[in-house]
Each structure stands twice: as structure tokens, then as C-alpha cells.
């Protein structure tokens, strides 16, 4: 009786199949199995925990399905805003003039292919690879793997690829550099590349500038200046009108103004003559007379100097009106004859020997002024027997100018 009663209590309990979940797909392969007509008493009692678990999973599936329908983005960390931000990050403006970063992945005879993380690659033509004229992109340091910022200058209608340029950016930087150099009023060097009836064309910072004949200090004809570098200063820098005008005369005037007597400069031997050597010292030709090469007699200049040699020389005199500069290495010799036997020692000690020479000049000038003051008491200064140049009145410092530290003059 008890077993029969228990069977009646559980006879209506059935385990719903998984196919009843709203998330499951209906299966057409197998027909729905009919429920048993007789109760299974012992199986229901043993598998009761499995039934509860199936019911819990079914409820979870129902809830998940409901969320997918009503709130599909709930609990998802990647929001719609994040998606739009990602699109903006990898999207770019392909208008002409826009700058974009890219990586060269292939080079060829006429240019290079550039990866710009777009739907198609971009192309860098050889004429846009550098501000200078080149025959291959590798002359501009462009190889596979080269990364740089490019500017978009056009579009290829055939395949919708973009045309890039480095030259355009370098062109802008060159004009900016010229404006800075003009503001600093510095002397620069430009290479003469051609000439016309009005002057010469020079290459400077990758740009072509013009130097009128009226602004060239040398008397050389234009053809002699081609392929030579000459010192220049800026007269006009106008990017809008593409006008770059320079002056060699102004640069030479500034260079000559800095040539002080006794100063040491580095020069290059340009040519040899029986009477001396012409030395280029920063665009100015100076004469190193044969008598100023060494304390020892030099019978053949070619045994000491050769065209193209670089050496240190001292300025002996400078005639600005005539544009003549006299030079000396004789005054730089630590001991007589060093310029012939050991010129490297002369160049090593050049600044030291020049300092001694300038001290001698200063001493001679001071003693000359002192001699003049002995006969001019109205000046208010007197020279004592100890060599102290001091005041006559009590309003001036009592010590005056001490000349005792000046080294004694020696025969040059």
C-alpha cells in the first residue's frame, strides 16, 4: 500500500527535455519521444538532484535569452563609444596636404611603396623623396622598414592609392632654416651651380638662391666660380615669392672685420708662386710671403707647402681698402726652423705663440703711450721709476696701471 501511494504521488512528475528551452533550436532529425505511461518510482527517487540542476540551468538559459533580446550590451566591457573611438583612431583624412605616418615596405627604380594602415598602400615617387636630385631612393636613406611622416600630395586614379611626399616637408623646413639664419645674421657657405647675365645661382639648404654680380666681392668671372663654395649672407628670404637673394660682399666684409692683427686662423693653400703662397682663410685670399714661412731660409716653397695643404697662419696685416691680408707661420715657430722640420709642432703651439706675439705688441704700445705721457703732464698721468702708470690727482686710483707683468720684448 505504501509503495502504491508513493507511486501515485510521483506519477505526474516529468523531467522536461532540454529542447524546451527558448535558446535551443528545434530538431527535425528525431521526433519528440512520448512520455512513459507507467511510473518509475525508484528512478525518480535516485535522480532527484539531477532534475533540480536541469531546472536551474533551464532557468538560467531563459534569463540569458531574455537579456539578449531586451539588453544585448548589458555587461559587455566594449561599449559603442569604444567602437567609434577605435574607428577614429585608425581612420585618417586623405585630403591633399594632410600629414600621415607610414612605413616603407618595398622600393623600386622610380619610388617606394609605403604602408599607411589604410585600405591600400601609398606610393612615394622618386622626385618626391628628397629635396635634392637623386637617381634612386636609397640615396636619400630610404629602405624597407624606413618609418617617417609623409604629406599627401595627390591620388592615383587608377587604383585609388595615395601619392606621398617627403620633399614638400623638407622644402618647408629649408625655408624656415633660411629665415632663422637671416635673423641671426650669420655667414653661410653656398655652392655655385650656374650663372646668368645678372649673377650666379647657388645651392643653399637644398634651395636655389641668387647672388647678383654687384654682391660678389671677387673679380673672378662667373664661369670660374661654378662648383665652388663662397661665403654668403642673406639679403632677402621670401618663401611666398620664392625669392632667395644673397650677398658675397656682405659676408666678406664681416669676415674681414674679424681679422685682427695677431689672430690665428686656419687656411688652405690655393696656389704657389715664387714669392709666396696664397692661402684661403674663409673665403679671403691671404699671402704667405716666402720670408714669413720660417726663420730659416726657404729656397723652394714646394718643399714646405703644396696646394690643398691645411695649416694655421697668423694675421700680420690687413689692408681692408685693397683687400690684402699678409700672413705668417714664421711668428708661430717655437724655435727657428720648426716650420721646415716639424710643421705639426708649429700648428700645435700656434695659439700659444700667437698669444706671446700679442703680448709683445701690447707691451710696445703701452711703452709708446708712456713715453708720450712723460711730455704731456696736462694729461693727469705720470709714469714712476718702477714702471707704474698712475694718476697725479688723488681722485684716481693710487695703484694705476701695472705694466710689470708684461714679458720683455724679444727680437722677432
From TrEMBL:
> What name appears for this protein in its UniProt entry?
Uncharacterized protein
State the species of origin. Answer: Persea americana (Avocado)
Amino acid at each position: 500500500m505504501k509503495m502504491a501511494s508513493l507511486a501515485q504521488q510521483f506519477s505526474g512528475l516529468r523531467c522536461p527535455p532540454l529542447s524546451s528551452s527558448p535558446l535551443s533550436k528545434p530538431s527535425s532529425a528525431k521526433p519528440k519521444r512520448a512520455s512513459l505511461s507507467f511510473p518509475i518510482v525508484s528512478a525518480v527517487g535516485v535522480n532527484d538532484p539531477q532534475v533540480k540542476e536541469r531546472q536551474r540551468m533551464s532557468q538560467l538559459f531563459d534569463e540569458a535569452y531574455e537579456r539578449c533580446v531586451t539588453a544585448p550590451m548589458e555587461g559587455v566591457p566594449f561599449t559603442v563609444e569604444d567602437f567609434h573611438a577605435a574607428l577614429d583612431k585608425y581612420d585618417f583624412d586623405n585630403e591633399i596636404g594632410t600629414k600621415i605616418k607610414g612605413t616603407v615596405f618595398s622600393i623600386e627604380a622610380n619610388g617606394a611603396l609605403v604602408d599607411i594602415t589604410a585600405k591600400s598602400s601609398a606610393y612615394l615617387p622618386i622626385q618626391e623623396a628628397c629635396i635634392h636630385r637623386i637617381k634612386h631612393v636609397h640615396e636619400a636613406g630610404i629602405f624597407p622598414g624606413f618609418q617617417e611622416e609623409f604629406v599627401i600630395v595627390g591620388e592615383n586614379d587608377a587604383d585609388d592609392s595615395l601619392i606621398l611626399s617627403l620633399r614638400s616637408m623638407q622644402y618647408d623646413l629649408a625655408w624656415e632654416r633660411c629665415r632663422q639664419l637671416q635673423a641671426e645674421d650669420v655667414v653661410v657657405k653656398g655652392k655655385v651651380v650656374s650663372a646668368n647675365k645678372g649673377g650666379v645661382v647657388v645651392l643653399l639648404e637644398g634651395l636655389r638662391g641668387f647672388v647678383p654680380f654687384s654682391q660678389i666681392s671677387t673679380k673672378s668671372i662667373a664661369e670660374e666660380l661654378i662648383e665652388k663654395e663662397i661665403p654668403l649672407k642673406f639679403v632677402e628670404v621670401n618663401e611666398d615669392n620664392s625669392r632667395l637673394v644673397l650677398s658675397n660682399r656682405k659676408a666678406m666684409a664681416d669676415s674681414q672685420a674679424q681679422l685682427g692683427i695677431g689672430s690665428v686662423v686656419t687656411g688652405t693653400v690655393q696656389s704657389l708662386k715664387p714669392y709666396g703662397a696664397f692661402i684661403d682663410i674663409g673665403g679671403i685670399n691671404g699671402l704667405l710671403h716666402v720670408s714669413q714661412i720660417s726663420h730659416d731660409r726657404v729656397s723652394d716653397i714646394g718643399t714646405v707647402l703644396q696646394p690643398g695643404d691645411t695649416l694655421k697662419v697668423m694675421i700680420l696685416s690687413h689692408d681692408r681698402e685693397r683687400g690684402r691680408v699678409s700672413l705668417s707661420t714664421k711668428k708661430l715657430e717655437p724655435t727657428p726652423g720648426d716650420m721646415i722640420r716639424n710643421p705639426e709642432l708649429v700648428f700645435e703651439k700656434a695659439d700659444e705663440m700667437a698669444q706671446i706675439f700679442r703680448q709683445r705688441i701690447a707691451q710696445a704700445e703701452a711703452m709708446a703711450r708712456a713715453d708720450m705721457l712723460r711730455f704731456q703732464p696736462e694729461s693727469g698721468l705720470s709714469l714712476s721709476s718702477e714702471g707704474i702708470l698712475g694718476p697725479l690727482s688723488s681722485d684716481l686710483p693710487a695703484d694705476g696701471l701695472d705694466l710689470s707683468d708684461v714679458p720683455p720684448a724679444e727680437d722677432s
